[in-house]
Amino acid sequence: MRAREIMTIPTFALTPSATLEEAAEMMTGHGFTTMPVIDGDGRLLGLLSEADILRAPVPAGDPDTGVMLGGGPRTAGSVMREHGLAVPGDLDVREVASLMTDADVRSAPVVDGGHVVGMVTFQDVLRALTGSRRS
């Protein structure tokens, strides 16, 4: 079984100009822990995780604000990781599982020619390896 056979589509993605608040709303609204950040042509630029958002610096001069509160422009592009794990669609599911485990990530974008075509999560991999069905 290959990554393209188990990936989730359509893939929700962020642009670099998306605010961290918008990113957090999209993640919580759709149940994602990591989202791809893409350019206008759908090419992968980086990955933004929940942890990246929570680690984002609190705006200077406002020490009482918590994460995600107040401050200036904090965008997906300014906080994303540019060198995250991405997998090709023809990669075997066992290899996907190994790469995700080694990279300590719970999801990875599936790319074709640099374009994001889907997302694979640990749940997708576990379903494929155990023969479970999506509910």
TrEMBL record:
Pfam families per the UniProt record, alphabetical: CBS
Keywords recorded for this protein, A-Z: CBS domain
Domain CBS: 7-65, 80-135
Superkingdom of origin organism: Bacteria
Record PANTHER family: CBS DOMAIN-CONTAINING PROTEIN, CBS DOMAIN-CONTAINING PROTEIN CBSX3, MITOCHONDRIAL
Protein name: CBS domain-containing protein
Species: Amycolatopsis balhimycina DSM 5908
Lineage, highest ranks first: Bacteria, Bacillati, Actinomycetota, Actinomycetes, Pseudonocardiales
